[in-house]
Amino acid sequence: MSRDRIGASELLRLDAVSMHYGAGENSVTALSGVDLSIKRGELVAIMGASGSGKSTLLTIAGGLVTPTSGEVIIHGQYLRDAKPAQLAAIRRRTLGFVFQDFNLVPALTAVENVSLPLELDGWKRSKARRAALDALHLVELDDRADHFPDDLSGGQQQRVAIARAVVGGRALILADEPTGALDSQTGELVLRMLRSRIDEGAGGILVTHDARHAAWADRIVFLRDGRVVDESRRDDASSLLAAGA
Amino acid sequence: MSVRHGLLALLSQGPSYGYQLKVEFERRTGDSWPVNVGQVYNTLDRLERDGLVERGETDGDGHVFYAITESGAAEARSWLEGPVVRGAAARDELAVKLALAVTLPDVDPEAIIHAQRVATIRSLQELTRSKAAGGDPDSPEEFAWQLVVDALIFQAEAEVRWLEHSEARIRRLQARTSAGGAAGGTTASAPRTAPAELPAPTTASVR
User: Fold this and answer.
1) pLDDT at B189 > cutoff 60
2) Between chains, do B34 and A236 touch, taking CB under 8 Å as contact?
3) Which residues of A touch B161 (CB under 8 A)?
4) Residue A137 domain-assigned?
5) What pLDDT is stored for residue B89 in this prediction?
6) A196: chain B residues, CB-CB within 8 Å
7) Measured in Å, how far apart are chain B's first and last C-alpha atoms?
8) Which domain holds residue A37?
9) Could you tell me how far CA A141 lies from the centroid of its own chain?
10) Which among A62, A180, B95, B193 is least buried, having the fewest CB atoms inside 10 angstroms?
């Protein structure tokens, strides 16, 4: 495996990543030779049917699972070479996860949920709280900072989750069906906020089965049976509206 | 839908002259359907012939005002309140293309699906970008325009879902025919009795 230097703006790279479960005749291929690169300011959507490998790809990109073969490189660090403590530190400091069902701690307020990963990383409570309040400001939830998740709507809870994903300067957002539990308009608001975090210098992967949501990404990758079958970039999109469609 | 119904709906709010109707029609539909003023006057002539509008006074600038008649108002109401009935799905070029493709032996329907999906997703990305960059959604013109963009976005999304559904069906069929030892893939010589999901007539029932 060649170990090229990756550009400073490249946050994540997957090189020929494959994932097989089981062995011999019962072996199942979840991903096969997937290459992917995410730069700052770039959101990549992963689409595909159930079982196409979308979620496997996200867990591998997040360092939660080690692929059978291929390399995952985050901020220039090859995850395969990282010791468990290093891997945990990369996850805490670089990656933010957003899930369909928000995954907020119900006993903590919004601001406590957001500051939690920083405190776990050794930040002083007061400094972590200030950073969490800044992150909540970015998702326009300043006035909900001291509310518990149960007192927030689904859309507000997901915005808290986005704040938690970017707090403390974490640069790579990994979102798994973040709008799956939200109505159409609320989902769109959450995507606008995710998009604006990306536009301000983060990078992200958005796993979705919904083309309307994937369209917020710069690039859309289609998986089928663990392989990339199609790819669409928005740079070469032709204008429909100019034609007065 | 025709410009005819749009003009009647506008005239139900009070008399107007041709150019005014053109401007109002475009403004209220978010500039999504440009009409030329000649088209507006032709339509007004036909509406007058059909007794749905009446030619009224001319102002000092020479503008001829048209007013809606009772039967015109009824027609406008009936159009606004009634559902839109779309043309038969069979006229959808993409559906026809794919339907033909699955019956032709040397055409790969999955390649058609892939090419279309990339093109449709690109349109969807472009529409989403235009909407995201849009202006103040509280202004009536912007709001009207965004409604039209939303309609295009939802149509494109539906097309992508249909393409994925079709791809899955084609792959299931291929898996069944190859498991059954059938040759000839999805070729169907008699579409009416052997629709796309059925293999060639020589193969045993797959349903």
Assistant:
1) no
2) no
3) 211
4) no
5) 57
6) none
7) 41
8) 10-21+29-107+169-232
9) 21
10) B193
